[in-house]
Structures are given as C-alpha cells and as structure tokens.
Write a structure and sequence with these properties.
The protein is an alpha+beta fold. The chain has two domains: 2-102, Arc Repressor Mutant, subunit A (Orthogonal Bundle), CATH 1.10.10; 105-151, no CATH class. 57% of the residues lie in helices and 21% in strands. It has five helices and seven strands. It has helices at residues 2-23, 28-39, 45-57, 80-101, 134-151; strands at residues 26-27, 61-68, 71-78, 106-107, 114-115, 120-124, 127-131. The strands form three sheets. Strands 1-3-2 form a three-stranded antiparallel beta sheet. Strands 4-5 form a two-stranded antiparallel ribbon. The longest helix has 22 residues, at 2-23.
Length: 152
C-alpha cells in the first residue's frame, strides 16, 4: 500500500512539475524551490531531473543553457507539443476535480454561479437561501419585492 501511495505522490509531483513549466521556463533548482514553497513538500532532485530528461527525450521539453546568477543553468521550456499535452491533462484534471467537488457546491439564488465554500446565507421567507455575496442577496430581495408588487 505504501508503494501505491508513493507512486501516486510521485505522479502528482510530475503533474505539478508540468504546471510549473506551463507557467514559464524554469531551471531544475527553481522547480524544486517553487514546488517546496507552494506545496510545502519536499521533492527529490532524483525525481525532477530524470523526469525533465524523459520529457526532453519525448520532445515535450527543450532546454537552453543560460546564466543564472554566477552559474550557468539548463532552463527548461515546454515545446508546443508539451503545452498541448499540458492543456489536455489540465482539462482532465479539472473534470476530475469537478466531479469530486460537485456535491459540495451550492448555487447562488440570484446569479446562478456555483459557490464552493462560504458564500453568503440569509433567511428569506423563513428559508435559508444561499448567495455568492451580500450584493446578490440584496439584488435578489429587491427583485423579489419589485416582482411581488407588480403581481398584486
């Protein structure tokens, strides 16, 4: 079981390396630093550098040697094919996340946007009503009052 979890974490780490490269070109140490800072997790150079080499061999990444401070470093950049792959992966990942959070979403009674966390709740006509913000709640109540007056 531990091996499966390690593989899952490793695959997620690779996915996240791609997201860092999708943002902009980066050298290996920069990828490791961003990973550590954003996810508050350590990542081993023995995962990062072989993965970058694999991506390069598959034509998904290319590198150039550039001076960074006093040293020269390989700066890795996604190729067009690499960017297309990332876009496909991001869409798949977004669909997975959507399925996972859909049951937790509430819908704003005024504008219809999906509210994942928090939102603004107010009792209207004795019923708890969800809004994305207090402005939508005010607009909803105003429209409800206007509609109610025109129907009388």
């Amino acid at each position: 079981m531990a091996s499966e979890v390690d593989n899952l974490i490793s695959d997620f780490s690779r996915f996240y390396i791609l997201t860092i490269l999708y943002e902009k070109p980066a050298h290996g140490y920069s990828i490791i630093s961003k990973f550590r800072k954003r996810l508050e997790r350590e990542i081993s150079p023995s995962l990062v550098y072989p993965f970058l080499k694999q991506l390069e061999q598959k034509g998904l990444v290319k590198h150039t040697v550039k001076p960074v401070g006093e040293k020269e470093r390989k700066v890795f950049e996604l190729t067009e094919e690499g960017r297309e792959l990332c876009t496909k992966l991001f869409k798949r990942f977004a669909n997975l996340i959507s399925v996972a959070i859909e049951p937790s979403l509430e819908i704003c009674a005024h504008c219809g946007c999906k509210v994942y966390e928090g939102g603004y709740h107010e009792a209207i006509d004795g019923k708890e009503t969800t809004f994305c913000c207090k402005h939508c709640a005010a607009a909803y109540k105003q429209e409800k009052n206007l509609v109610g007056k025109t129907l009388r």
